[in-house]
Amino acid sequence: MIEMDYRELALLKINVLLHDPLNKSFLLGRLGPEFGEKHRGEAKIFLHTILNGTSLASVGLKQTLEKIVGEADRIASAFDRWVLRTTGWPSKSYINYGYLHNVFSPSIRVELREPPSNDVYKVALELNRILTIVDKRTSDVPEKELLLYNTLYTLLEPICYSKGLSPSLADTRTPTHTVFDHLYASTAVANMLLNKALSEDPKIDGFYVIIDFPGIQKFVNAGRKVGDIWASSWLLSNLIWSLDEYFMNIYGYDIVVSPTPRLNPYTLRTLLSRLLNLGNQGYKLITDLEEMIKDKDPLNNAIESILNIYRELYDIDGADKRGIRTLWLQPLIPATTSLLIPKIKPPEAEPLETEHDVAKKIDDCFIDAWKNIVDFVESKLASRNDILHQALGNIIKSVRNMLDTPPQGVNIAIVRIADVYEAIKECIINKRRDICDELGLKNVALETLHQKLQNSEIDLESLAKSLLWYILVTRSSILARIDRYGRLYNYILRPFWTYSGGQLKSVDSKLERFSVGWIPCSLCSQEPAYIALRKDIKMPNQVTFRKDDIDELLSITGIQNREDREEILQGLQNLITYIFKPGEALGPYCLLKRALYVSFRDNLEMLSTDDVALSAVSKLLKNLGLTKILDRKEIESIGLSKEDLEYLFTPSADISKDTRKPFKDIYALANAYGINYEDLVNRVTKYLVDSCRESEVKPEELLKNIAHIIGTPINGSSNHTTYNLLMNLAKNNGIDVDSLCQFLSLRTQYAIVRGDADNIGKIISGQIFGKIEEYKRMVESIKNSSKAIGSEDVYKHLEQGYENAKNVLEILGLSSLPLSPAIHQAVSLSLMLTAVSDYKIVREGGGILIYSGGDDVTAFLPIETAIDTVIKLREEFYSNGFKKINNIPIASAIPTGRSFSIRFVNIMDVMSTEMSNAMEFLENRAKRAEWNIAGGSPLDKNSIYKKDTLVVTSSRSGIEALFPLRIDIDSVQNILNLIRDTPLLLLTILSKNMPEDYRRLVEEYEIYMDSNSLYNLFNYVLKRNIKSFKSVTSRNSDLEMVYKIFRSLKDLSLFIENEKSTAIQEYIKFLSIVRGII
């Protein structure tokens, strides 16, 4: 194994990262035919400016290391080389072009704005200022030089976007990715070339590693509170990221292939943790960042500068340190990660010479990562003086010996890159058909390949290198099962029971404390319970805890033995109601999850299921200025104090400061007052509605605020038919305050939202999109909007290059472009940007993000905002072709659909069951839907498409309703607007009895009707169910507006295998669902 010191490693990677100038393609106009030589000089100037004054400033790169820069450049841009090297491209000839094309759909493009050269120089100076401080203030860090590189890696791209600078193209002849995609791809590729540069053996080497936490749904869904589910997801994200982090700090951030470290909030946390020398307790940044950097020394000032860059990047409301910290509380890291581990030994690092060494290190790191989280939770609870944290901390401490072992391990797939590379050569050079099959190249025409490339400038070994990344990313999980390439290490569940003498016994006597010996955890059903709180019914529909169970719990917490026991006993007993529910039995791991979110209670924006359910109503009261109704004298009729009513409708950030009521919890409040839960809900709802009716709020003002809450646009555009109609009615006494006030209630329902991008695996592997014919058509766009530099034959060579690439792909048996490192960077970045945007959208909707990886997303939302939030999540995934920051296009959006499931549930429902139900409807209904849309956009008439569907269900009915989500089709957008606005219609002009009326008159005849007949009958039912307008002279015109709103339901059919439905039928079902919750 090659030993390599951190100075050498850092200097190499910095040279790879900066081998091209950031404004590369923009230099074409200024440098002209001399671009080839002079642009590299520009890159050197930028590099020297950045490193000036640091310990790396005067250190040159060895000649052996210089070779790796060029090799990494070539392999990172594999497809570009196919296009450019097969045509004898004329010397000193270029194409000056300024548009970025979507890599999956090249016909879509966007113009890139050229930044002033002086602005690029300012970026270099700003980076230099930060790196100089880091260099001087981190002298005690063993990998100081690598930390310099990691700082540069983290800041290079975001600092440009924070200053409004547009990225350059990597190459104007293949304008599908930016220079940043190429540069970051080159650093990743460099990891498998280190062996070549440092030894006599020229082999590509290293390990491609896939780490996966299996059983994700079972682990995450095990919960009865929002906090349980969030904590499970956050645990997974941080366990996986901790594995990445270990290797990142040894080899450099670029070794993480997926999820991308670029523009990743977790990368920022990793960097700050290392700059502040926090060791394995980087989680403290989430809770104590301000305290850590309050002293204004140079390093803390540099950290402030770094934070300011990311504030500009993420644009979180408030733009303060807390905004950044909230991103570290979001589970944005998937349960699967991929690493490219170089075969070198940095100082003080363990040598990882075989896949067994790598797997053992990953297992050890996983156990350490788990312990670090447990340490953090325990220390965080112990650091607080209030009885809630102390009691829960003592519970965790009492089972710490069990919690030191994770509940399970991870699956690890490892392939030896050198062996995969040799196999590719065996396939295409030595014509080994059996090897080709193993690599997934089953359709390659080997004889034709040799003949075609015989006189080409692309030799077979270069072709092998260009295919290496594609095969590693798409085939490693399969190749790891074949001994000649690597090995697969399966995870192991920790044992909870032993079998002896014909009986199951728990692994620890503490778990056999019950009269029956042991009982299973009621949340996960996988581990034995440690505490059990059985139900005790005190009054009809009023359930509380059994006294002996409470006494046992108090004994575990250590309260029974304290001198001040009597003083705090009653307070703790009240608090228990907020932490546990009657009937729960929790094992050590599920207790840890609950303790985790309690430890973050002052940092989380949403704390409980009730928080989510009441979020929108609370916001409405605040926006209307109706919080004064919480002071009315009639409040006494509820049986609550003014403070407690305010508590229900106060933002959770303020609630968390009240240790008497640590979480918003309607059930706990009812228990505290001895009020039946249902009675309390009814009393508060009646009070809100009555108070609203007796207030002086005008109907148009109330309508405007309700519309704003549910997402209906209120800017007065003529396209917003629903709002314009209803506002006109409200202003003319057609709608009264009484009906609108019905919107207010003590909400006990919320929405579980689950979404997943359609066909994402096939897209990334190149099975969908990326067809070479689409790229060939892109040449016309380049020709029409560019300027030739040097030879006028460049366009002829470009066309020939794409034709040659097409021929090579056909010979290889590939239907689309193989995934290159640069393209993979662009796709991964797109997913990361989507994940951050998902959080912002869910937050705006008053919900809590459970997980987003950019493709799949899970969130809890108030019922009022769920539809609008899903529409926005779908739009964010793909709408205009590109992901943007500060209105700067930086990566291709992935042009596919994103299907969603919304499940409306009650806070008393079993959450784990409802999470599973939401997923089942997503997979078995939305993902299997096929739509036939007549009409739509002028370019997409009579379209048929699959998936990209929303399914809406409720736990209180067996009804489901499905709707298309193809937002680029006008009629679909109109339907989505209709279902979003339906709560307004039901509050005002639409009868809730319409579904029954429709079924009575139409349902038996639906299957015999064509679309026109069905629509006419639907219109007839609609007319019967429009409420009478008061004192409105323009009834006919208003009715025509109503019918216009529903017109988009016509000519739209749904198929799921042999089932057939229409948008009209689905809307009737939707009405049946939504009328029961609004």
From TrEMBL:
It comes from the Archaea. The keyword Nucleotide-binding applies. Residues 750-929 form the Cas10/Cmr2 second palm domain. One of its GO terms (biological process) is defense response to virus. GO terms for molecular function: nucleotide binding. Pfam families: Cas10-Cmr2_palm2, Cmr2_N. InterPro entries: Cas10-Cmr2_palm2, Cmr2_N, CRISPR-assoc_Cmr2_N, CRISPR-assoc_prot_Cmr2, Rev_trsase/Diguanyl_cyclase. Keywords: Antiviral defense, Nucleotide-binding. Residues 208-374 form the CRISPR-associated protein Cmr2 N-terminal domain. NCBIfam families: cas_TM1794_Cmr2 (TIGR02577). This is Type III-B CRISPR-associated protein Cas10/Cmr2. It comes from Ignisphaera aggregans. The gene is cas10.
